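Let us work through a complete example step by step.
Step 1: write down the sequence.
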Amino acid sequence: MQPRNMSMSGVVDLAAVKAAGEAKQKAEQSRADAAEGGGPPAPSGLVMDVDEAGFEADVLQRSAEVPVVIDFWAEWCEPCKQLGPLLERLAREYAGRFLLAKIDVDQNQMLFQQFGVQGIPAVFAVVAGQALPLFQGAAPEQQIRETLDQLIQVSEQRFGITGLQGVPGEATEAGEGAEEAAGPQAPEPPENAALAAAHSALDSGDLNGAVQAYKNVLSDEPGNTEAQLGLAQAELLGRVQGLDAQQVRAEAADRPTDVGAQLRAADLELVGGHVEDAFGRIVETVKRTAGDDRESARLRLLELFEVVGADDPRVVTARSALARVLF
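Step 2: predict the structure and record it as tokens.
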């Protein structure tokens, strides 16, 4: 699987809307603490072997100041032996713009399961405590570089996370040669002001404004994937706003045939990070219903697929499950 065209609006966990402001504050505090403590870590700290015991400190907490890329690998995995050294070299070359956390899946089964990893090597990122999939399997270096560049750009623009400052880089002949061969860089396309306004409204919690702004973009550009994803996310957040989680769960348990109750519960599960539970609930709802009820459940599941991202392995698994119950 090739690295996806990553957009934080489409693949980041929904809690990122709230986390954006908190992450900026944490990043500023972390940078201040680092300055008082004598600066950033040595380049050797750019690559870490992480286990379940150290995950919170090494990954979650660090992700408030620098994007953390996670490489799920195993000793017996041949593609891992190709991808791992490449990621380590890029971590040193990028000089603190991201950290690399290497997780041995044989020794850390709980993390393997929590991230929903379907196969290795698998590469995820954590930004401001929010996890998102980057790609699975070995990939060409240039495509990996593009994915990392997107990750760094989005982390800074959406969360104010600029990475570690002052870490010496490691120039590579391949990198220098690529820059020389590429020649003058083409100017970046102008920013879509309407889309930026929609993102801003979503980040600030103005869900009604975000929904309308994304619809405005789509009225002019019906095929704008980023706006489609943003709209799905904003609408989901709007649906769960004000819901009593305990009451929703109780209603879903008491009324298994009530499609509305099941869909509300699935929305809350997805927002809470329980992606597989949300997908499984709706697939079961599709299975036990017919007619308009079935169609409503099916369409809601497709909307949630958009929120999580089509390349996410959990979406791939749920699509197969949906196909089995439909056909």
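Step 3: interpret the result. The chain has three domains: 8-182, 193-240, 245-326.
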